Amino acid sequence: MANDSVINVCFHGIGTPQRELEPGEDRYWISEELFGAVLDEIRDWPGLRISFDDSNTSDVGIGLPALLRRGLTADFFVLAGRLDSPGSLGPEEVRLLHRNGMTIGTHGMRHIPWRGLDPAASDEELVTARERLTEVVGADVSTAACPLGRYDRTLLTRMRRLGYTRVFTSDRRPARATQWLQPRYTVRNDDTPGSLRTEALQGPSPMSRLKLETVGVIKRLR
């Protein structure tokens, strides 16, 4: 990897879900044992950045203590519309993350794709949700993670105009430290520490790498 490469590793739910899952979401819920094993694997990776999506209560109940024990920090992308909902973080838990050195970013309001929204819905997801989280944290919220990994050129252009300083996606490839758009490796329940190490550190074959890069270019230009 290049010297300025960053490996973004993203988690969602850990342990037993405390809310009803969306269709297909169970793939991104992992056991506490797998979570700990992955953290132990990645903790010394060069250029590592950890993040959590969807603001599940496991972020605080399991994720935060495990990070602190290992001296790690992470970005937590919170759904403003789920604050205080069953199985989701409340304002005090979001503040707890922030007080412990974690970065709070926005994942929008309702966990819907941001691509192709009408102006009112786009404002709710990109502006209102961010404002609500800024009020909760008492500090600027300037980073975002695109729900379901979906984005296009129109969306990214608007997010730049709104002043987002960094935007995270679900494209499984390394990033550059200075890039505004940051792809991530999302941990799934069929991953292992070894498979993640092979994919992220050794990288895909040249043909697979070209395919991933092409998909990213298409998303940014469409």
Quick structural gist:
Its main location: secreted. With 222 residues, the protein is α/β, with parallel strands linked by helices.
The number of strands is 11
Shape: globular
Q: Structural class of the secondary structure composition?
A: alpha/beta
Percent of sequence in beta strands: 15-25%
Task: Tell me the distance between the termini.
Answer: 28 Å
Task: Assign a percent range to the helix content.
Answer: 25-40%
Report on the biggest sheet: 6 strands, mixed
Order of helices and strands: EEEHEHEHEHEHEEEEHH
Please report the number of helical segments: 7
Provide mean pLDDT, rounded.
93
Describe the structure.
The protein is α/β, with parallel strands linked by helices and about 220 residues long. Helix content is about 40%, strand content about 15%. It has 7 helices and 11 strands. The strands form 3 sheets. Strands 1, 4, 5, 6, 9 and 11 form a 6-stranded mixed beta sheet that branches. A 3-stranded parallel beta sheet has the order 7-8-10, with no helix packed on it. A two-stranded parallel ribbon has the order 2-3. α1 (about 30-40) packs parallel to α2 and α1 runs parallel beside α6 (about 195-200). The two termini are about 30 Å apart.
List keywords for this structure.
222 residues, 39% helix, six-stranded mixed sheet, NodB homology domain-containing protein, NODB_dom
Topology:
Elements: E1 5-11, E2 13-14, E3 29-30, H1 32-42, E4 48-53, H2 58-69, E5 75-78, H3 91-99, E6 103-106, H4 119-137, E7 143-145, H5 153-161, E8 166-168, E9 175-176, E10 181-182, E11 185-186, H6 193-202, H7 206-221
